[in-house]
Amino acid sequence: MSELNYHVTHFVMSAPDIRHLPADTGIEVAFAGRSNAGKSSALNTLTNQKGLARTSKTPGRTQLINLFEVKEGKRLVDLPGYGYAEVPEEMKLKWQRALGEYLQKRQALKGLVVLMDIRHPLKDLDRQMIQWSVESAIPVLLLLTKADKLASGARKVQLNVVREAALSFGGDIQVELFSSLKKIGVDKVRQKLDSWYAMPDEATEDQHGDA
Ligand SMILES: Nc1nc2c(ncn2[C@@H]2O[C@H](COP(=O)(O)OP(=O)(O)OP(=O)(O)O)[C@@H](O)[C@H]2O)c(=O)[nH]1
Ligand SMILES: [Mg+2]
């Protein structure tokens, strides 16, 4: 059982870059990954709400930083997917800038969920995301998504391969299997998020409370 009730999560806003986000306080957990990796689906599965985050068969659907609130001061963030080939170069650079900026400047960011299709893990941009997080001392939950696409033997092999590879980054990285379709790994995600949301919130919270 998880501490927080993720089912009550609601949409807050979409922003083209970090300047449009609400005050940089509280705790944010962001979902990042290649376009089509299953980020929006995972958010919907986690919160048990079909239409919370928009999903699509067309990669590159989520082009904005989408913000959701689980509870006051505890937010989930659906980040734009990276690595989609058929997006114009200029747009790609714009997203990548928004993404890099969010990761490097957002103080509220306390945990990053990196989602990778279990059949195509650890592409260059995934590695870059993980590297960024490790350098910024942000813990990472690596999810191997669409685990339902592999038979259970192949699934375990892939999990071990990625766990082994994750060690080389040296940071706080946990690797788990995930499937929105078959609801694999959902409790693991909720437990990890609970632990991140339970982190003490330095200095900011009291100034904004109504106590
Ligand atoms: N088989 C299977 N398909 C999935 C799973 N999760 C997502 N998909 C499918 O993968 C496609 C992309 O899912 P999204 O959740 O929209 O992916 P995304 O990472 O948010 O994509 P962008 O917003 O473009 O970055 C959709 O067609 C989903 O139905 C899963 O667990 N199993
Ligand atoms: Mg999406």
From TrEMBL:
Query: Which Pfam families did the record assign?
Result: MMR_HSR1
Instruction: List each copy of the EngB-type G domain by range.
Output: 25-199
Q: Which cofactor does it need?
A: Mg(2+)
Q: Which UniProt keywords apply?
A: Cell cycle, Cell division, GTP-binding, Magnesium, Metal-binding, Nucleotide-binding, Septation
What is this protein's function? Necessary for normal cell division and for the maintenance of normal septation.
Family stated for the protein in its record: Belongs to the TRAFAC class TrmE-Era-EngA-EngB-Septin-like GTPase superfamily. EngB GTPase family.
State the name under which the record lists this protein. Probable GTP-binding protein EngB
Species name for this entry?
Pantoea anthophila
